Amino acid sequence: MSDNSGDSAYWSANKRLIIFCLVIWALASYGAAILFRPFLSGIAVGGTDLSFWFAQQGSILVFLFLIFFYAWRMNSIDKEHGVDEE
Amino acid sequence: MDQTTLNIIVVGLSFALYFGIAIWARAGTTGEFYAAGRGVNPVVNGMATAADWMSAASFISMAGLIAFVGYNNSLFLMGWTGGYVLMAMLLAPYLRKFGKYTVPEFVGDRFYSNAARVVAVICLIVISVTYVIGQMRGAGIAFSRFLEVDIELGLYIAGAVVFVYAVLGGMKGITYTQVAQYCVLITAYTIPAIFISLQLTGNPIPGLGLFSTMSEGNAGSGTHLLTTLDQVLTDLGFREYTATTNPWLMALYTLSLMIGTAGLPHVIIRFFTVPRVADARWSAGWALVFIALLYLTAPAVGAMARLNIATTMWPQGVEGEAVAVDELPDWFETWQVTGLLGVEDKNGDGRIQYYNESGEGMAELAAERGWEGNELVTFNRDILVLANPEIANLPGWVIALIAAGGIAAALSTAAGLLLAISSAISHDLIKSTINPSISESGELLAARISMAVAICVAVYLGLNPPGFAAQVVALAFGLAAASLFPTLMMGIFSKRMNSAGAIAGMLAGLITTCLYIFTYKGWFFIPDTNMLPDNADGWLFGIPTTHFGPIGACFNFAVAYVVSRMTEEPPQEIQDLVESVRIPRGAGAATGH
């Protein structure tokens, strides 16, 4: 949707990181927890299957990890491009 | 001391705490009133966001919502947490850098148009007002149940309490009260959950207990809790707890809740209160940590409470005799009074048979064993959380804590919503549109008056809830997903997006979502004016109205893109504004007005 031509290196790095994180976000929630359930049904976890665990706990833990990972990575990307807050 | 007195003492103490905070955190400037002076620590803001977000519905109803359906309703867990990933990466840091006070303000400034600002204000007010009705109602019900007062009186008390700290302290007062409210509600939620988990599985962490085996002394000891639950439920003719129905619809509904969550203005403005852009990123993570503490516990509470109730009704298993009427536990009696539980001995055998009448093969089984229908005639899902301490035989102060927790959850969300509404009125309508020359103290007074009026309207609507209140919640999420989220995102990620595109896009998202909902629910929710039947045969591609948010968002994106390419690109200073919003440097300087 955006005009890529005028984007700074910093903004491109941010967008790459966001896309990477959102792919994992989608794989954990829509993938592992919902749509891939038929393929993961063989993996038993605590009296049910892996997808049930992802739907009730795993996806939330992945979301948590992703937000902190993004914040941590962006802080160093800010510094690399000299746009961090003093 | 009886339970009601104890409840009044605990709830009263929690109010005293909120009032103390209100006096300490008075707002002296509009900056403090709208954004707590931007001095809130990111962890503290995370905690306040968690309380802001977790409503009476999350606290009281969610465990039951999951427990009565099982796997399929995990979509609420994912939908209401996954939105924070979108918010943390696509909205919060840039809107914090923008450094203003409200969501419509960003829309109006970025798209250099008061029309865009007003459309955003309308979306915000529709979303927030529908939400706040449910919260006021929730607070009123919590009061009436635990303190034995009328719902009406409960609503007045709730309104008065919010009035004190929201009008006095604005965002600053609300923030620190929300922190206290979070502590109250999470303690209230987890203590009974820990005890029930210990009783059933021996594991003190409910989230782990859910996937553990049943401990000694329980029916099915040695097998997994979820396996036992599946077995008990299928024996009673219910659907298996862990079964899937329609994965594509489940995914679409999850997406709808996620995008809707990310577009809710009362949550977005919480990220305006932290000092720096980096703090906004961290703060979203902390918010999710504090939300996850409850959301990882809720499915365990739901599954365990459902199992407990099934075994209470069938103490010797489904093969044996059902529970005798005079052997029902005490909490059963207490909660029958409230109308949330109800039994009726239809076949007159002195026992209460609980099963699913329409389950496969259940009619034959019932005929064979002399059952004449399900005798647990009322089984409200909220009971799973409300009666949890009693089911686990916990002392009276834990029950009182649940009362304070439920009220805290409702009040904290109501206050956040009321602030979003009042700041949109005083800042976006009065200051930016009607009377730009208003002074700082004049605007602060206007903000306080708008807050007071918003509280009165909320109490009035809580007293006289429109008949369609429940359906409008779906509209609120759909609107947030279809109107605000795409517009905010394009404002940041597309420099080419101009005012014509944004306004056309917002209207497209708004109108398609409303049309879709009205087609099935009736025009403006007036009964019998729906054009098509509200069921799977009538729905376009089988999509229920609650799932429409992402589709409305697609309309918004598509229309905005096409219209913006056909019209002139935004002026240079707007492109510079977008450039500056994208980088964190200079966030401190941009906070002044």
List keywords for this structure.
heterodimer; A: 86 residues; mainly alpha; two-stranded antiparallel sheet; 2 strands; elongated; B: 593 residues; 24 helices; 4 strands; globular; disordered C terminus
What's the short story on this structure?
Chain A is mainly alpha-helical and 86 residues long.
What does this structure look like?
The complex is a heterodimer of chains A (86) and B (593). Chain A has a two-stranded antiparallel sheet. Chain A has helices at residues 9-35, 37-40, 50-80, and strands at residues 44-45, 48-49. Chain A is 72% helix and 5% strand. By secondary structure, chain A is mainly α. Chain B is 68% helix and 1% strand. The chains are: A mainly alpha (86), B mainly alpha (593).
Could you name the ranges of chain B where pLDDT drops below 50 across 5 or more consecutive residues? 589-593
Largest sheet of chain A: 2 strands, antiparallel
Radius of gyration of chain A, taken over Cα atoms and rounded to an integer in Å:
17 Å
**Order of helices and strands of chain A, N to C?**
HHEEH
Alpha carbon gap, first and last residue of chain A: 32 Å
Overall, the morphology of chain B is globular
Percent helix range of chain A = over 70%
Q: Given the helix and strand composition of chain A, which structural class is it?
A: mainly alpha
Instruction: Name the quaternary structure.
Output: heterodimer
Low-pLDDT residue spans of chain A: none
- Output the strand order for the largest sheet of chain B: 1-3
Number of helices of chain A: 3
Write the H/E string of chain B, N to C.
HHHHHHHHHHHHHHEHEEHEHHHHHHHH
**Mean pLDDT score of chain A, rounded?**
87
Number of strands of chain A: 2
User: In terms of structural class, how would the helical and strand content of chain B be classed?
Assistant: mainly alpha
Number of helical elements of chain B: 24
